[in-house]
Write a structure and sequence with these properties.
The chain is 55% helix and 8% strand. It has 336 residues and is α/β, with parallel strands linked by helices. The protein has a single domain (3-106, 168-335), classed as Rossmann fold (3-Layer(aba) Sandwich), CATH 3.40.50.
């Protein structure tokens, strides 16, 4: 394959994606490529959840039918929680996955964050010590002030995006923790079927896939694409995900069902469909049958992709226990 197609030109990527309105995605793409640290998948489990599943290795249907384990990206929203509950009631064993996007970005951007803080402190010092410089004209001062203002605006936009990711991550993790407790209180028989959530803090690099993914975004030129980097992270994580992390002695030699709760109202649904059609996202066949994909990890099942959020909420209202449904309704009212 031609080297040009495997390597993202930083300047071209920045200008192209910025025009398309991808700002943060552009910057993060460059960081994934240029950063040589943290190149393997890393994750952790919360001790309290492991204690609650201390007898997991005694579950007979894992050894008898390992395909009974289903992996799902669970962020505590109503769509993914609906699928989790539905599968638990089918006596499936659920391995929840959660990508800590803020944690990942904070590690990648640590140097930049420190630089912004240092620069901000220096600017304050300069402002305090600012005096009339007789060697500079007013035009020169205006030009310097304009450059400084533009740079500050970019820094503010960057910091706002980081803060937004942190708030989102804190909220979602809290949702997951609360919902796990509510589910196990309502259905204590599911205690061994709901495995500890894998909290993902680092994702393996894959230059070839990342290049193809964002080159495709360049070709699509979407007007809106905020958050599409999450799809790239999912596929890249699954490509290098070993499914033996928690269950001792368990070796999944067949492709398991891996679910993402995207629905018809997903904000990047049009881009997602383009990525699927171009082979950048592998979609499982109906029912999670992955046999046509050579048993690879990175095949996603999207069981509610044809449902809108209104339908999902209606089904959840009919399906969820009252306390869990009231929890969602209360949170929705608090957001308004």
């Amino acid at each position: 394959m031609d080297l040009i197609t495997l390597t993202l030109n930083k300047n071209h990527l920045w200008s192209g994606l910025s025009i398309a309105g991808l700002g943060l995605v552009t910057y993060l793409t460059n960081r994934y490529i240029n950063n040589n640290k943290l190149t393997t998948n890393q994750m952790y489990y919360k001790p309290a959840e492991i204690v609650n599943n201390s007898n997991i290795n005694n579950i007979t249907n894992i050894n008898n039918n390992p395909e009974n384990i289903i992996y799902i990206f669970w962020n505590g929203d109503i769509s993914s929680t609906y699928i989790v509950l539905d599968l638990l009631l089918q006596d499936k064993i659920i391995q929840p996955l959660y990508i800590e996007r803020y944690t990942i970005i904070k590690a990648l951007e640590n140097d930049k964050l420190l630089s912004i803080i240092k620069e901000n402190d220096e600017n304050k010092t300069n402002d305090e010590n600012k005096t009339n410089d007789e060697n500079k004209t007013n035009d020169e001062n205006k030009t310097n002030d304009k450059k400084r203002t533009n740079k500050n605006l970019k820094n503010i936009a960057f910091l706002n995006s980081i803060v937004s990711l942190k708030k989102s991550q804190d909220y979602e993790i809290k949702q997951i923790e609360i919902l796990r407790l509510m589910i196990l209180t309502q259905y204590p028989e599911f205690r061994n079927n709901l495995l500890p959530t894998s909290y993902i803090t680092t994702i393996a690099k894959d230059l070839e896939y990342t290049s193809k993914f964002y080159n495709t975004i360049l070709q699509i030129k979407p007007l809106y694409s905020e958050g599409i980097d999450f799809v790239e992270q999912i596929v890249r994580f699954l490509k290098y995900y070993k499914k033996t992390n928690y269950i001792s002695g368990y070796n999944n030699k067949t492709a398991s069902r891996i679910i993402i709760a995207f629905n018809k109202d997903y904000k990047n649904i049009n881009i997602l469909n383009d990525l699927i059609s171009k082979g950048l996202v592998s979609l499982a066949l109906s029912g999670g049958n992955n046999n046509n994909h050579d048993n690879t990890n990175d095949v996603l099942d999207m069981p509610i992709i044809d449902m809108d959020i209104k339908t999902i909420k209606f089904m959840a209202f009919e399906f969820f226990p009252n306390d869990i449904m009231q929890f969602f309704m209360k949170n929705e009212q608090n957001k308004k």
